Amino acid sequence: MKKNLLLAFTALLLPFLAAAQFSLSGKITDAQTGETLPGASIRIEKTPIKTVSNADGNYLIRNLKAGSYSVMISYIGYQQMQQMVVINTNQSQNFALKRSTLQADEVFVRSTRTAQNSGFTYTNLSKKELAKNNLGQDLPFLLNQTPSAVVTSDAGAGVGYTGIRIRGSDATRINVTLNGVPLNDAESQGSYFIDLPDLASSVDNIQIQRGVGTSTNGAGAFGASINVQTTTRQDTAYAQLDNTVGSYATVKNTVSLGSGLLANHFTFDGRLSRIKSDGYIDRASSDLKSYFLSGAYYGKNTLVRLNVFSGSEKTYQAWDGVPEDKLLSGDRTYNKLGLMPNGGFYNNQTDNYVQNHYQLLFNQKFSEKLSFNGALHYTQGSGYYEEYKIAQPVADYGLRPVMGNDTTDLVRRLWLNNYFYGVTYNLNYQAQKNLNFTLGGAYNQYRGQHYNRIEWTQQSTNITPDYEYSRNNAFKTDFNIFGKANYQLGKLNLYADLQYRYIYYSFLGYDYNLNNVQQSAALNFFNPKVGLSFQLDPTNNLYASFAIGNHEPNRDDYVNSTPASRPKAETLYDYEAGYRTQQGIFTGGINGFYMKYNNQLVLTGSLNDVGAAIRSNVKDSYRAGVEFDGRIQIAQPLYWSLAAALSTNKVKNFQQYLYNYDTNQTVLAQQYQKTDIAFSPDFVGSSELGYRPIKGGEIALISKYVSKQYLDNTSNDERKLDAFFVNNIRLRYNFSTKAVKNIGVSLLINNILSEKYEPNGATYPDIEGGKVTNYNYYYPQAPRNFLLGLSLRF
Questions:
Q1: CATH number of 19-97
Q2: Cβ atoms of residues 377 and 358 within 8 Å
Q3: DSSP track, 637-697
Q4: Backbone Cα Rg of the chain
Q5: Mean predicted lDDT score pLDDT of the chain
Q6: What is the pLDDT at residue 698?
Q7: Angle at 507 (CA atoms; ends 505, 509), nearest 5 degrees
Q8: 230-621+632-793 has which CATH code?
């Protein structure tokens, strides 16, 4: 009788036991020395639950239901550990990790990244997260759900020329590195992901730091930095085929191969890709190809990796946008580029470019306290864009009129051959258990050859084939050295980072006498940064930081000015503070920022002393806001990821100049006391609501809202981009057979409600007939469209 009562009582308790919430806690240590391992990653397999160990090596995971869990523990330089843990009460479980006999690829990016519980604002993306949406769209579109990001596509469907802004800062203010090697163009300072098509298929992980961030290599981070790590070690041989078909004749084919770990020391990986698309905009076609080859040697204390990769692109030009009158009439796909006098279009109005990259990465561990890593790199690019020009004055090309023809239609090619090479280096010293030093930096050189040729003229001009009518060369050196120190004082982590950067730039430009001769400029920057973080407990972290960044003018600023009118460098003072938490089913954080600019460079409409409309320094401007990102596991098959940024972005005492066609003069049109910074929405929000109905299956609703933006700094509603709210649906199903390790089927339906929106544009106002006339151009994005992918991994 008593036994039956006990069984009945236990049965009654089962629902309550199943619903009970328990915790898992313990310490992570070195199996050999017993030293604690702060910052170790603890993850519950097949769930989003994860945390990191604190300064004392302790960890805590709350809100676990009763059951068995597979716990994965990892730490750089140690073997990954996996162990089953049964939870039916508050459980204590310590883990002792063995040191890896092989070096890990993470050493190549460690010095240019911020640590997990640092004083800086960042987002990490894994290969697995990137792969969900990697169906042929360019890399910026795979970063679209991160906080404060706004992406755009010239062709309208994410293939071809694309762009990204983070906190309103465009690509020229976003520092991009591949394995610590700068990717930004040394002169224009932008990063053109179109030159490396399907790069995402060779990426292992990405860290995005918003604001100034920690010291890095290349052009100064003025709005954000994107730190990319490419292929890392895979111990098992593999072969993978990824194929996509979609709207606008979009096709993507990718073949990836890997040897796995050979003779316990060597790995070889390779990828070959092709992407083609007609684009949504008229004649905005893309023909993209790339390859990625990598070989590595792993020793106990030595790691060497050679990366060789290349991309080629041929795209029909669509970079001028759609005129406002065409947009209002409903012609959202209009493209005027290549228009000929007979009303037809020149069929080779294309951009053509090939870029080759070579990286030799090296790491040597001298002792448990001292290690070194460095990289030799070389990038070579060559290409041109070809365009049909109507009624060109022959004198502008250094030619004399023939038979009285002062003008002629012509086809010209504007060429660029450039070379970028150098070395990056980092020396890391673990002075004591709680004190770490890093000394790093880079020395890089750039050589750019700009030259222009005439391919054809309608009227006779007596020129030879490929007639070269102009040439100028540029040379730039970029040296930086930085020292970083981390000090752990109990639960408090202190960080200091000091960087010196020197730039020398030689270019063909105007001197004081308006003669176009070789000019030079030299700049010295000091970029200090400090940060602190406080670990309230293993799952809650407070942080704050202050950083100064400096940014040089770009090529156009230098070439189209004299020493008297040349703009000054920009300075940014960046204040960040926030809170991060990992509470079992919820992971997230909130961050506040204040970015104060001194001498920010903006277009004002004014002309300088050589008659060029270049950017001018605005003394006082700022960005201030709050960012949030988080993920909650609502139920085992249901999750919700959110990101939101609310900000105010202002420029003070802005003066707008306009050209007056009535008087043929540039005049001060209006002075504004405080206006919005161009392309800086007050609110950017994103959401991903996912449901896994069956094992290996997922349905996700992906949403993005961006508030209105202005095309210039006048806060004029006649020159703005409307707010937009776009929704995508992603369907995925992964399964395996005896012959195939993984079969993945993906369907991405973009803009399911066919929202008419334009995330980018340009404006060129002037004065005609005593009135301001606006010439606005927009970049419409595609209505409902799809990408269907099939992935086979062997």
A1: 2.60.40.10
A2: yes
A3: TEEEEEEEEEEEEEEEEEEEEEEETTTTEEEEEEEEEEEEPTT--SEEEEEEEEE--STTE
A4: 28
A5: 91
A6: 95
A7: 130
A8: 2.40.170.20
What pLDDT does 591 receive? Answer: 96
Q: HSE on the CB side for 262, CA within 13 Å?
A: 11
In 3D, which of 748, 634, 631, 756 has the Cα closest to residue 686? Answer: 631
Give the separation between CA 611 and CA 127, rounded to whole angstroms.
49
In this structure, how many other beta carbons lie within 10 angstroms of the beta carbon of residue 649? 23
| 312 closest CA partner among 238, 235, 381, 220 | 381
**Distance of alpha carbon 410 from alpha carbon 407, whole angstroms:** 9
Confirm whether pTM is higher than 0.85.
yes
Give the pLDDT confidence score for residue 229 in this predicted structure: 94
Question: 729 and 702 in contact (C-beta within 8 Å)?
Answer: yes
Q: What is the pLDDT of residues 633-681, one digit of tens each?
A: 998 899 999 999 999 999 999 999 999 999 998 898 899 999 999 999 9
Contact 552, 591 (CB under 8 A): no
Say if residue 770 is exposed, middle or buried (CB neighbours under 10 Å; 0-12, 13-18, 19+).
exposed
pLDDT tens across 88-114, in order? 888 888 998 877 666 788 888 888 888
Bridge partner residues of 270 (DSSP): 257, 293
pLDDT of residue 537: 87
Instruction: Give dist(CA 160, CA 259) in Å, integer.
Output: 32
Query: DSSP characters for 261-274?
Result: -BTTTEEEEEEEEE
Contacts of 1 (CB under 8 A, 6+ apart): none
What is the rounded CA–CA span in Å between residue 551 and residue 223? 11
- Of residues 776, 786, 781, the one with CA closest to residue 756: 781
The answer for 260, left when phi > 0, alpha when psi is -120 to 50, beta otherwise, is left
Distance (Å, whole) CA 728 – CA 141? 12
The structure tokens 């050493």 sit at: 107
Strands 761-763 and 766-768: unpaired
Q: Which long-range contacts does 512-515 make (Cβ < 8 Å, 24+ apart)?
A: 512/562, 512/563, 512/564, 514/562, 514/609, 514/610
The answer to whether residues 532 and 580 touch, using CB atoms and an 8 Å cutoff, is no
The band of 5, judged by pLDDT with boundaries at 50, 70 and 90, is very low
pLDDT, tens digit (0-9, with 9 covering 90-100), for 41-68:
888 887 778 888 887 788 888 888 888 8
Beta pairing class for 492-510 and 467-489: antiparallel
- The rounded distance, in Å, linking the Cα atoms of 607 and 657 is 8
Nearest Cα neighbor of 186 from 225, 219, 162, 164 is 219
Nearest by Cα to 139 from 203, 188, 183 = 203
CA distance 435 to 136: 44
How far the first Cα of the chain sits from its last, in Å, is: 59
Please report where in the chains the tokens 């391992």 appear, as a residue: 37
**Residue 564: burial class (beta carbons within 10 Å; 0-12, 13-18, 19+):** exposed
**β-sheet bridge partners, residue 531:** 495, 545
| Angle value at C-alpha 59, between 235 and 39, nearest 5 degrees | 55
CB atoms within 10 A of CB 11: 9
The residues pairing with 278 across neighbouring beta strands, listed in sequence order, are none
107-229: CATH superfamily: TonB-dependent receptor, plug domain (2.170.130.10)
Answer for the pair 270, 293: CB distance below 8 angstroms, yes or no. yes
Q: What is the DSSP string of 463-516?
A: --TTEEEEEEEEEEEEEEEEEEEEEEETTEEEEEEEEEEEEEEEEEEE-TTS-E
- How far apart, in whole angstroms, are the C-alpha atoms of residue 399 and residue 408? 11
CA–CA gap between residue 120 and residue 524 (Å, rounded) = 25
Maximum alpha-carbon separation in the chain: 119
The residue assigned the tokens 């270019």 is: 507
